[in-house]
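Help needed: design a sequence for this.
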């Protein structure tokens, strides 16, 4: 608990003037943190300590303001929403006036934090399914991208050598920069297994500076990986062929990032909540609503130098996540997103920066059993639970398949049909659970999908640029919202 009430007997109005204060013991613990020997007085360590203390002061003041606002307005629902909007404005101003003004330059941290040019990063929970998925991907990469080093991040708090004993694909690795090399014929693959809690503890970056429950670790793994250019893959995001060319693609070279959309967004009923018009994302980021899809957080290609500010805003959101999932009883704003879902889109919105997103492709098949053929007809199209993501250089080729974590690998081989525009002709919005549905209306919108080559025929995905077109400065006009547009053919 980082804020404590100063009195339990005052009215809310009286308590508003001194609603909370920093917990002295926690403040002292943060101030007394000592960086590991490798860090000494590194600028990034001092930046994190300073930011942590300053943000806690800000949140306590923000909490005081919320108590004051809701007390004066008698806590009526509409007025609570007005108080939330004012708090979002404060959050936005904190990023602009404090975080970005104190952020160390990329060059000041690159040598210590990111010594290697490029590589692939996985996060790995301790489950048999996750290990099987990562092992399959590593086997593929040994055949196609053996020169790319790999970092696999766990979060159990075990020493690196203990992690290595648990997973045979990183046996013998230690966390001091040496890596186990797997042999496949004459090829070698560099695999470094690192545990986030053990790693940050060795640097003095304890839970006080990097609090986490689950989803924040994906952002941490991207940030603290030793690569300047990172391809991050959730364990269920399976590449279907080589990926090293992505780093050299013209889109990535120009933009410094490539993201992938989810299937749902503004035009989805039930799901896609963070892209809906009523989402609090728009108030927090001070961006006018426009039709868009949610951005998948399980496949991220990032150039840290070019997107240094976006990376640090994402880290800030991941470190202070009462807006994502309220862990604290005294959270000052209602949760906006769940876990790290859409965190990269939010970072770009806050900074008013452009970004590129590849559309998702629903991979499907004809009805595979008698019951479905009777219920929907033989010409229906049935989703198989797998989403395809297109290549950076060829939008008619699927490069990644993202599938539910409960499915066996490789499940996507059952798909023979591709759907890119999920709305039926008479629909204003399509239901979120289409990934589990059979639908007759897709028949005229489908194309062929060849699993062996990843080729789409008759349909193709598209790379969509999201561009800020007005109000694109983080100025002091509290009533000014930025406007974004995109070149998407469908949402």
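Sure. Designed sequence:
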């Amino acid at each position: 608990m980082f804020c404590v009430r100063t009195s339990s007997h005052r009215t809310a109005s009286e308590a508003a003037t001194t609603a909370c204060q920093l917990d002295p013991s926690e403040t002292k613990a943060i101030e007394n943190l000592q960086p590991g020997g490798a860090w000494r007085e590194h600028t990034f360590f001092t930046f994190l300590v300073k930011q942590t203390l300053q943000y806690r002061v800000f949140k306590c003041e923000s909490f005081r303001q919320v108590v004051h606002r809701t007390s004066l307005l008698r806590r009526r629902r509409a007025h609570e929403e007005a108080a939330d909007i004012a708090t979002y404005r404060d959050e936005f101003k904190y990023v602009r006036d404090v975080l970005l003004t104190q952020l160390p330059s990329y060059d000041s941290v690159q040598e210590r934090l990111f010594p290697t040019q490029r590589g692939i990063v996985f996060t790995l929970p301790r489950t048999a399914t996750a290990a099987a998925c990562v092992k399959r991907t590593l086997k593929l990469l040994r055949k196609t991208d053996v020169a790319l080093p790999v970092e696999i991040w766990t979060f159990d708090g075990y020493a690196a050598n203990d992690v290595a004993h648990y997973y045979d694909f990183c046996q013998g690795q230690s966390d001091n920069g040496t890596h186990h090399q797997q042999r496949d014929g004459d090829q070698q693959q560099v695999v470094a297994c690192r545990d986030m809690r053990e790693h940050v503890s060795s640097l003095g970056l304890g839970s006080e500076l990097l609090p986490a429950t689950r989803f924040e670790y994906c952002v941490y793994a991207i940030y603290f990986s030793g690569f300047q250019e990172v391809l991050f893959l959730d364990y269920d995001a399976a590449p279907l062929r080589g990926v090293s060319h992505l780093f050299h693609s013209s889109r990535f070279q120009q933009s410094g990032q490539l993201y992938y959309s989810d299937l749902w967004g503004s035009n989805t009923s039930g799901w896609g909540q963070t892209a809906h018009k009523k989402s609090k994302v728009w108030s927090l980021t001070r961006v006018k609503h426009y039709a868009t899809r949610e951005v998948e957080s399980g496949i991220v290609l990032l150039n840290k130098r070019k997107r240094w500010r976006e990376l640090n805003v994402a880290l800030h959101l991941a470190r202070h996540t009462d807006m994502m999932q309220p862990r604290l009883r005294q959270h000052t704003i209602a949760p906006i997103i769940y876990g790290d879902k859409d965190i990269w889109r939010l970072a770009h919105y806050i900074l008013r920066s452009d970004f590129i997103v590849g559309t998702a492709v629903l991979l499907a098949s004809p009805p595979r059993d008698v019951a479905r053929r009777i219920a929907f007809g033989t010409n229906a199209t049935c989703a198989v639970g797998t989403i395809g993501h297109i290549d950076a250089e060829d939008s008619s080729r699927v490069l990644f398949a993202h599938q539910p974590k409960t499915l066996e690998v490789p499940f996507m081989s059952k798909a023979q049909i591709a759907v890119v525009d999920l709305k039926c002709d008479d629909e204003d919005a399509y239901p979120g659970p289409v990934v589990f549905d059979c639908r007759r209306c897709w028949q005229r919108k489908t194309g062929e999908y060849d699993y062996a080559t990843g080729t789409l025929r008759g349909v193709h995905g598209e790379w969509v640029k999201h561009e800020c077109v007005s109000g694109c400065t983080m100025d002091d006009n509290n009533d000014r919202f930025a406007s974004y547009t995109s070149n998407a053919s469908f949402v």
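The two ends are 41 Å apart (CA to CA).
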